[in-house]
Design brief:
By secondary structure, the protein is of the alpha/beta class. The chain has a single domain, classed as LarA, N-terminal domain (Rossmann fold). Helices cover 30% and strands 21% of the residues. The protein contains 11 helices and 10 strands. A hairpin with a 6-residue loop joins strand 4 and strand 5. It is globular. The two termini are 26 Å apart.
């Protein structure tokens, strides 16, 4: 991880004097394989300290268990002894309201999202790569977009593959990470994001274009990122790059030699039914304004 972050040193040049929010991923407080490895966050904090970040907040709210349990179980409290860092439970945050889609795509649903994530000066998303039970893979963008929803409202976006991919993309457009980091030394395959099996991958990916980072990671996991609906929409809306010929990958001479094919979730075939015909797409987005791209 440290070598990957050294390659991404340029991304940290603008962090001096700014508040940093690190969004980690703890779906459950009790299954270590589903969580962001503490070693990845330690390496990130070392890099941030070299660039004199003003304040660092590690933010999350697990869907299963409490943040305190997760921090204890995954060894995160030791970070507070090594760095000037605080932990923040997003379940206790103030919020803004965004509208997403119901299953029919004909009605909008209001969800509360974290104001801390929305208003972060410098947002970092750091995750372990995992397969997913609804949207093929869960990586840095989904970690932010779904994790920023206050826990009581998270179930409201689970409206089938067509709606959830649009909803994740739309929420993510409001809170794209400044730095996306994937610790892929050991990922999760099969029935992720909690009940899957370990899949050694042996590499990490980081960059300032979260769409490119997640798309590259999906490729390295053996998936076509064009089949990941929320990545496709963000690429189509101009929030990042996706295709290998659009992305410069430093540190890998030929990414194809590093592909480790993850076993997909057992519902993978059903997850691919997210695409809309042109009329459905235009109607779903009618009257909706996308945020200005940074």
């Amino acid at each position: 991880m440290r070598s990957v972050l050294r390659l991404a040193e340029g991304a940290l040049q603008g962090v001096a004097g700014r508040g940093v929010v690190i969004k980690v991923n703890f779906v459950s407080a009790h299954v270590e394989l589903c969580a962001t490895p503490v070693g990845a966050v330690r390496a990130l904090l070392e890099a941030l300290s070299r660039h004199r970040a003003e304040a660092v907040l590690i933010a999350e709210s697990p869907s299963g268990g409490t943040l305190r349990e997760a921090l204890r179980n995954y060894g995160y409290y030791a970070l507070r002894e090594e760095f000037d860092v605080e932990f923040f439970d997003l379940a206790e945050d103030d919020y803004e309201v965004l509208e997403v889609w119901d299953r029919s795509l004909e009605r909008r649903v209001r969800v509360r999202v974290s104001r801390t994530i929305l208003e972060s000066e410098y947002l970092v998303s750091v995750v372990r790569p995992k397969t997913h039970d609804t949207v093929v893979v869960t990586l840095t963008i989904k970690n932010v977009a779904v994790g920023a929803i206050l826990p009581p409202d998270r179930g409201l976006i689970h409206q089938g593959p067509r709606a959830i991919n649009l909803s994740i993309a739309y929420i993510a457009a409001h809170m794209m990470p400044k730095l996306a980091v994937v610790d892929g030394y050991v990922g999760m395959e099969g029935d992720g994001p909690v009940s899957g099996d370990p899949r050694p991958m042996g590499l990490a990916v980081a960059g300032t274009d979260a769409v490119a980072v997640d798309s590259t990671t999906a490729l390295l996991m053996g998936f076509d990122p064009h089949n990941v609906g929320y990545l496709y929409y963000l690429w189509r809306w101009g929030y990042g790059r996706m295709a290998p010929d659009e992305v410069t990958i430093e540190g890998l001479t030929d990414w194809r030699k590093h592909v480790v094919r993850f076993r997909p979730h057992s519902t993978y075939a059903r997850q691919l039914a997210w695409r809309l015909n042109p009329e459905e797409y235009e109607e779903a987005l009618r009257g909706l304004e996308l945020p200005r791209r940074a």
